[in-house]
Structure formats: structure tokens, C-alpha cells
Amino acid sequence: MKFYDCHVAPNPRRARMFLAEKGIELEKIEIDILGGENLGDDFLAINPRGLLPVLELDDGTRIDEVMAICRYFEELQPEPAMFGRDLREKAIITSRQRKMEFDGMISSSEVFRNQNEQFCKRSIPGGGKDDIPAIPALIDRGQQTLDRFFWWLESYLEEGPYLAGEYFTMVDITAICAVDFAAWSDIHIPEANIRTKSWYEIISARPSAEA
Ligand SMILES: N[C@@H](CCC(=O)N[C@@H](CS)C(=O)NCC(=O)O)C(=O)O
Fold first, then answer.
1. CA of 186 to the centre of ligand 1 (A)
2. Rounded to the nearest 5 degrees, what angle is found at the Cα of 143, between the Cα atoms of 137 and 149?
3. What is the pTM of this model?
4. Fewest Cβ atoms closer than 10 Å to its Cβ: which of 25, 39, 89, 163?
5. Nearest CA to ligand 1 atom 12
6. Class of the 87-210 domain?
7. Class level of CATH domain 2-76
């Protein structure tokens, strides 16, 4: 199997953290997004969307989307469980994971891409070489939904040490990647969110956070 990666980018990092937590090692092929390698013909032949990460199976099947890649390995190697151990946990994790993606990852992307010069021509990636110009009003909207994201984190942490309860899951992975992505635009965990700040220190110290 091969894993098409970009070490600076937040979405490949989510998959790398997940794989590290499972103890799974894959051959990695680094694609340079900042240098535009993902929009070159060679990579577009691998993923016409020009997005990372991509998993390539030994039979040549290619799987994009972080969640699809992580679900594949969750089925292949269920322990440690990252998407819940029973029906109730699985439902809660799916629900919270969506909020971390929409209010965390997508909002961070919205703020970053609509104001960053290098990315503002492709304010929504995924169309290969096609441009979608920035809409500056989306910076403000992204900031507002990031407020909501930080509120979710603090309220989930009132229930337990991790974002979906008593143990570390995919929800924590997506959340920490979104927190670090928001920081690219100088948006940080609010000072008053004491639980989230301490959660952040603990999750950042896990070896997988460096993967
Ligand atoms: N929903 C996709 C998002 C993938 C994505 O947006 N990847 C970014 C890196 S974080 C990318 O490849 N960007 C390419 C670009 O900006 O041209 C997933 O979960 O895999």
C-alpha cells in the first residue's frame, strides 16, 4: 500500500495521526502542495481532485477522503477502536466528528484560504486545476463558526477527558488538527476555555501528534 501525503497539510495529518495510533506504517509519497505538485498532471492522474491524502491499495484501488481511509483501517485493524466500541459510542462519535469537520476543519480552511494570497484563487480546493476565487466575507463567517467549534470542544470536555468520553478517538484527532489549522490564521483557543487548553496540552504530547 502507498500513502500519498503532504507533511505540512492538516488533512493528511489527520490520517497520519490515526495510522500512528493504530501502529500502522505505510510507504509514504510526499506531494508538495505549496510547490503546486498536487496540480501537476502526474498527481492529477492519481487524484483528479488534486487533494491529499490518497491511499493506494496493493490492487491499485485509490481511496481519497480522510474518513474513508481511516474507516478502511478501522475495519482492517479494529484495535484500538477509534470510532467507538458499541452502537451508542459509534453514533456519538459520528455525530461529533461531523461537527469537528464542519465547524473546525472547514471553518479553518475558509478563513485561511479566503485571505491567503497563495490559496485565494482556489478558495475551495478539489477541482483539480480549476480556480474558485476567494470571497472575503467568508473570512468573517469562518471566524464565527470557529467560535462555535471552540464552544463544542469546551462543552464536550465537561463530560469527560476526551471529546467523545473516556478514551481517545477520531474526534480528538480531527479537533486537534483543526485547532492547529486555525492557528495558521492566528485564531486560538479562547483563554477562558480552561478544559480545552488542558486537553490540547495532553493531546499534543501524544507521539501520534508528531506523526
Ligand atoms: N475532505 C478531504 C479534504 C482534503 C483536503 O482538502 N486536502 C488539502 C490539504 S489539507 C489539499 O489537498 N489541498 C490541495 C490544495 O490546496 O491545492 C479529505 O478529508 O481528505
1. 20
2. 140
3. 0.97
4. 25
5. 51
6. mainly alpha
7. alpha beta
